[in-house]
Design goal:
Blueprint (H helix, E strand, L loop, with lengths): L1 E2 L1 E7 L8 E7 L2 E6 L3 E4 L11 E4 L5 E8 L4 E6 L4 E5 L8 E5 L6 E7 L4 E6 L8 E5 L8 E3 L7 E6 L6 E6 L3 E6 L5 H4 E6 L4 E6 L4 E6 L3 E6 L11 E5 H5 L3 E7 L6 E7 L4 E9 L3 E10 L9 E7 L4 E6 L3 E6 L4
Parallel strand pairs: 1-26
Antiparallel strand pairs: 2-29, 3-4, 4-5, 5-6, 7-8, 8-9, 9-10, 11-12, 12-13, 13-14, 15-16, 16-17, 17-18, 19-20, 20-21, 21-22, 23-24, 24-25, 25-26, 27-28, 28-29
Length: 335
């Protein structure tokens, strides 16, 4: 394992316990959402100076965020009251909320955004025997253009668009299914074009490339699936099993998919050892975990759970965020 050095950090200055819930990587630097209901943007070179932008969100309790435009610093947030907001982080704080998408009062657990498709998608909790996927066209009215009610039978915990086709949407749920939907289809009976049964509640799932998908469950089981017709429908093409046993960790924070189909990086934590490890998922003839070239964040976020991480390859910097209220920056061979 190759250890990185923590070179910078910022802690939310509140007396009460505050979690940094997620990091949203923008070209200009990392943004975060936190349990004090804030959306913040940082200068990647000076975390300790505090956020450049620090906005109060209005979702009752913020649950998720996704970049709408990575280069332009436009982000969507959502939460417990069912509302979805779009923010332009380049604007003055009083004018930063550029849209508020409405017509939903059920708590939102997941978001997906496509700037090329002008789409924002929200996945809801199960309420009154119904879990919804709502799709807005941001060019038109603030009410959804599509509302799927039968794609999943439980909480919709994950949403991600296809990397090259903005009509294709991946959804994951606590019902154990990862569904691939064609959002050009309005008929609920036809919208799901492929289903992968992971057999356990979905924590994270996304496309690795044009046809392959990963899924990791809340009980840390990782498997890969392929939409290609040559594979048996719905069966895992690679089943890694319980990652706690495979990697000797206690939890998987997330899986960060690299650009251009170059595999992914798994963030695995062990809070009792104050450890966090980045393990490459690489593809040769088959998919493999490259343990020999893993990267460690020594001390991580002390004994607290790491909620999120991201990396900027060209700048050789990794950012992590945790339940200790910190966002930290890590570099190799820091002087």
């Amino acid at each position: 394992m190759y250890p990185l050095t923590c070179v910078d950090g910022y802690k939310i200055p509140l007396r009460e316990e505050v979690y940094v819930l997620d990091i949203i990587p923008f070209t200009s630097g990392p943004a975060t959402i936190s349990s004090d209901q804030k959306l913040s943007l940082f200068n990647p070179a000076r975390l300790s100076s505090g956020p450049l932008v620090n906005l109060v969100t209005h979702h009752g309790n913020i649950t998720c965020a996704k970049a709408f435009d990575v280069g332009g610093a436009v982000v969507c947030t959502a939460g417990q009251d069912g509302s979805v907001s779009m923010w332009d982080l380049r604007r003055d704080a009083r004018q930063a909320e550029v849209a508020r998408l409405i017509d939903n009062r059920v708590p939102v657990l997941s978001l997906a955004c496509s700037s090329t498709g002008f789409s924002v998608v929200a996945g809801t909790e199960l309420q009154d025997h119904q879990a919804s996927i709502l799709i807005w066209d941001v060019r038109s009215t603030p009410t959804p253009k599509l509302h799927y009610k039968e794609v999943h039978s439980d909480d919709v915990t994950e949403l991600n668009f296809h990397p090259t086709n903005h009509d294709i949407l991946l959804s994951g749920s606590t019902d154990g299914l990862v569904n691939i939907c064609d959002t050009r289809i309005t008929d609920e009976d036809e919208v799901v074009i492929q289903t992968f049964n992971h057999g356990a509640s979905i924590h994270h799932a996304a496309f690795l490339n044009d046809t392959e998908v990963y899924a990791v469950s809340h009980d840390e089981k990782l498997a890969l699936y392929d939409m290609a017709e040559s594979t048996e429908k719905g069966a895992a093409t690679a089943d890694f099993g319980d990652m706690r046993n495979v990697l000797g960790c206690q939890y998987i924070a997330n899986v960060f998919v690299k650009a251009n189909g170059a595999g992914a990086v798994i963030g695995a934590g062990a809070h009792d050892r104050q450890a966090f490890e980045l393990v490459h998922l690489t593809k040769g003839q088959n998919w493999n975990l490259d343990r020999d070239n893993s990267v460690g964040l020594p001390g991580a976020h002390s004994s607290e759970i790491v909620r999120s991480f991201c990396f900027y390859d060209e700048a050789q910097i990794v950012f992590s965020a945790g339940e200790d209220g910190y966002i930290k920056a890590w570099r190799p061979n820091a002087q």
